[in-house]
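Consider a concrete sample entry:
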Amino acid sequence: MAKSIYVGINSAARKIKKLYVGINGTARKIKKAYIGIGNVARLFFTSEPGVVKVTNPTALATARGNLAATTIGNYALFGGGHENGDAYSKKVDAYDKSLTHSTPTALSKARDNLAATTVGDYALFGGGYSASSYSALTVDAYNSSLTHSTPTLTLRTAVARLAATTVGNYALFGGGTKNGSVVEADVTAYDTSLTRSTPTTLSQARDSLSATTVGNYALFGGGRGPVSVVDAYDTSLTRSTPAELSIARNKPSATTVGNYALFGGGMGPGSSAVDTLDAYDTSLTRSIATGLSVARTNLASTTVKNFALFGGGSSGGSPMDTLDVYDASLTRSIATELSTARINLVATSVGNYALFSGGHNNNGVYLDVVDAYTVE
């Protein structure tokens, strides 16, 4: 976490970027400085890069949770979701690299619990619930100019609570639940021309899983049960099964930083939130990193520059505003909290900004707030 010191110059606060101390007649740069508070050493200055809160951009066009997010070209997209008043949403919000907000053409079908990823020049939003317990086959595509289209072929199976990621030239949508009761193992792939193919299914049918990509592998991990299995697909869509998650869980959150795919948090055995963070390197070797600062589920994650961010979620039924940060060496710090504690939010990154959007509070009220973070 970035910590800063300011000094007053001509009635203006100026940030101090470097501090030095004299040692044996030589000026030595101070990288980190601490102060004692309550017999505990607290970091109050660092010259090393860190994640900081920047602003709250223009709010979403409609307050909602259980939406999906991805990035295409110069735009972060937030699509679908569930609105206040028990309404399914087809809204799409876009934020460019300057965090300017716009509203592209809406999704072709209103739905929540959908998934999104990007392949070639297309951001894809697939699946979801289009009505209570009724899942959708629908896929919507947006190119880098935010022009909307629909691929000729839909998902192979109508599912919600699925996961999506991209490896090589393929966007993959995997797992999910059909009509609220039948758990599926199907995987649907779209190439850069939006031609559909059907790779080998997941090794185990499941929903409420998560997905991310590291090196030449797309990883699908966890799921309702809870489940510990991880499936990997290479750039030829050949499936393998690396070491399982160290703790079975549903609804973990996944992102990638440096050479590591990270699966953090989720609901473990006994319906207890976990703080575990499993890391898979580019050879699919698993390790266990320092856990989240607070055990929680229904959180969101994204990566900006060389930092992975895990924000929000639920701990013991209470929404959280915590934001854990991991660098490419998997060292953990804690950044300035989200502006509002919330669960079932989503995150993606555009340009120099990580965006956390939507979700709902402890009263089940859906929110339109967007938090933006950068590295300095």
Notes: The first strand starts at residue 5 and ends at 9.
